[in-house]
Amino acid sequence: MLIENIKKHQKNLRACRKCKAMIPPVITCLPVASKIILIGQAPGEREGDLGRPFAWTAGKTLFKWFASIGLDEEVVRHQVYIAAVCRCFPGKNPKGGDRVPSRVEIQNCKTWLQEEFELLEPELVILVGKLAIEQFLEVDRLVDVVGKTFRKDVDGRLVDIVPLPHPSGASTWHVMLPGKDLLHQALSIIERHPAWQALL
Ligand code: SF4
After folding, report:
1. CA distance 136 to 197
2. What pLDDT, in 10s, does the model give residues 126-142?
3. Whose CA, among 5, 13, 99, 142, lies 20 to 30 Å from 175?
4. Are 9 and 116 in contact (CB under 8 A)?
């Protein structure tokens, strides 16, 4: 029943065209009844063709991180619900990189995430990158939050929140100190979490 409800939710989500500046298709993950939700920023330009989140270079790094704590890419894709702050490609920023979604677009897409929280009742929320982190925690600098767990009430439900840096090749934060050590600490926290342990 839960899987059927998740499939129905994703079908409605894929039909969403609320944000006129966003470039479809809407990218959804596998319909997974997971106690872990991972929230990224927004799909890049390759995800539309490939039809799944984190399908290109950032994903390669992200899944390498998870393999280092026991779960390879296909297991993660089949066991962890992969969401995002926005589910459509925002387009390119003329100054370089991808356009950061607007406040209105983030608000529009939040309703889909709220439905997913209601359906899945997650225990562990993994936030990937500053835009995702900012939606749940007050943060100026990644060094203040990566490597820590935050127990927080999200829509009336207590969840453990673990922030990660963005695995984009454009960022060197996670390969230099102190980011490298903090990333290692954050992955250790995820590895020890009961919801992750249940998947090993
Ligand atoms: S970004 Fe989200 S709310 Fe906006 S059109 Fe895409 S799915 Fe809909």
Report:
1. 24
2. 999 999 999 999 988 99
3. 99
4. yes
3-state secondary structure of 18: coil
Q: What are the DSSP E strand ranges found in 105-166?
A: 124-128, 150-154, 157-164
Phi and psi (nearest 5°) for 118? -65, -40
* Every domain of the chain and the residues it spans: 2-197
Would you state the pLDDT for residue 171? 83
Judge whether residue 168 has pLDDT over 90. Answer: no
- The answer, yes or no, to whether any atom of ligand 1 lies below 6 A from the CB of 41, is no
- Max Cα distance, the chain (Å): 46
> Contact 53/59 with Cβ under 8 angstroms?
yes
Measured in Å, residue 100 CA sits from the centre of ligand 1 at: 13
pTM as predicted: 0.97
Amino acid, res. 95: K
Q: Report the b/e string of 10-35 with b at 16+ CB within 10 A.
A: beebeebeebeebeeebbbbbbbebb
Q: C-alpha angle with apex 187: 84 to 50, nearest 5 degrees?
A: 35
Does 85 sit in the ligand 1 pocket, CB within 6 Å? Answer: no
CA angle 81, 134, 142 (to 5 degrees): 100
> Is 2-197 assigned to CATH 3.30.110.10?
no
Block residue for tokens 């990660």: 164
